[in-house]
Structure formats: structure tokens, C-alpha cells
UniProtKB/TrEMBL annotation:
Coiled coil: none
Matching SUPFAM superfamilies: Nucleotidyltransferase (SSF81301)
Lineage: Bacteria, Bacillati, Actinomycetota, Actinomycetes, Micrococcales
UniProt name for this protein: GrpB family protein
Signal sequence, renumbered to the chain: none
Amino acid sequence: MAIHLSEYSESWVGDFMGVATTLVDALDGHGGQGIEHIGATSVPGMVARPIIDIAVVAAPLALDEACEALAPLGYVPGGDDQEGEGFRKLNTPTSGVLHSLTVFDEGSPLLHASVAARQVLMNSPELVAEFSGYKRGLAFTGAIDVDEYRRAKAPMFQKVLREAGMDEDALTSLAASF
């Protein structure tokens, strides 16, 4: 299946805010510490798959509690391959804003890497342009699937994280999560 990329849309911020408001209400008193807009849709000017990436930040030892609080909204575990150390990806409801939701323990290295990457990109239009061009090249082939696309973006993601000051040991430990 070909990868569909879209030019940056200001509507992505509003889409995120709408979903975040619903999440905050559901998490009230259930271990949620915050909501972060991560991924390419959170970076002005970045080309992205038009899927809003959302991180729910859970208090220490509250990862499962936060996930359970979101179940009545239609967020359910995504299966064994959708969890790792300090995070759980949840399948999202099929109605409303197209988004991806991951619940992270507040100490998750992947959460910190995602937030750091967003900050670096928001402060570097040149890096946004380079990364966007790289992604366009990957999608242009038309024969790449989502998993291949994610793996193929890893070198650029690593470059961004190096700009954020992440050391090689940390990059190596995160490599499987890109």
C-alpha cells in the first residue's frame, strides 16, 4: 500500500486540541499527567501522513490505569506488538479525527525522544525541509508500506535526535522503536 503524505495543515492543531480535550476529561483522576501532540503533524511546515500522533503521559505506575480509563471512549490495546517498555499503543475509534494514540509512562525514553525531536524540528526550518524532502522521496516510490516507511525514516529521525543532544547509546536503545 502506498504512503499518502500531505503538506502541513494548520487544522492539525485544532484536530489535536479537540481529541486532547476529550482525553483529558476521561483521564481525570486516572493517572493521566498530560497530553502531547507529537510526530510530524505537530511540526509546522512538515510533510506528514495526515494522522495526528497523540501521546498520553501517565504518572509512574499508572500506565495500565490510564489505558483502562480510555477504554470507554473506544481506545483498546493494539496487541502484543503494540507495547514496549514504558508505552502502550491503543487502537483508536474509527469515527472522528484520524489519529494514533500511545500512552507513555512519564519516564519513557521514546516519549522524551518524540518530544525532543518535535522541539528540534520546530526550531529548524532547514531540518524540516530536509526531512520533508526525504519523506517525499520515500513515498514517491509507491511500493513502500507503513512499516517499511517507518524503518526508512529512522536515519533522519536519528539525525534530528543527535541535534537534540541524544548520545549514540540512547539512539541505539531506541532504534527498534523508530
